Amino acid sequence: MFLKTVLLVVKKDFAIEVKSYEILSTTLFFAVTCVLIFSFAFVREAEPISKDMVPSGVLWIAVAFAGLLAIGRVFERERYSETMRALLLAPAPRPAIYLGKLVGVVLLLFATEALLVPMIALIFQAPLFRWAVPLSGLLVTGTIGFATVGTLFAAMLVRSRARDVMLPILLYPFTIPVLIGGVWGTAALLGDEPSVPVATMWTGLLAAYDVVFVTLALWTFEPLMTE
Fold it and tell me: What is the value of pTM for the model shown?
């Protein structure tokens, strides 16, 4: 029943998005715009100011901004159609509802990152594809951590009138460790002396963050939504 509920929630979100492409298109447009703006600021004569910190910082800033937009839009749609109320009234495990929404957000961010990585590699002349495996580990663990916290807070604020203001205020302080780990881990791969062990260390820390916050979110989602 738990897994079936997760799959049904993911299938519902996927079907709606396939018909409209509303969230994916706006998220991709916003992320691409962020990268282009940063490229004008940090690229001089076809070379980035810093070959390690600038591309890694731009990548994770774009993920953070696009992730906030995507998470907010996903639950804004639920509020307009009263879908969240219907989901909570359904005879289904509430942690499964949360996990289904989380999987949908993570897949949306993965699709965004699939465009961002080659774009940043091209604009900033960053050898991201040379370190595809460790970079993938950083992106997967970092994205899951960011989406875990964001999905929980967005669900909590779905009925709040100040949700657009409160979501970033709550989200970014809790996800600073994710962004720090992602930036430093990616920078370790792009430096003059690339260090896979350092990137692996940051990936491990991000994975530990994911385990803690996914467990905490599954445990607290039902009482928080009841309140």
Answer: 0.88
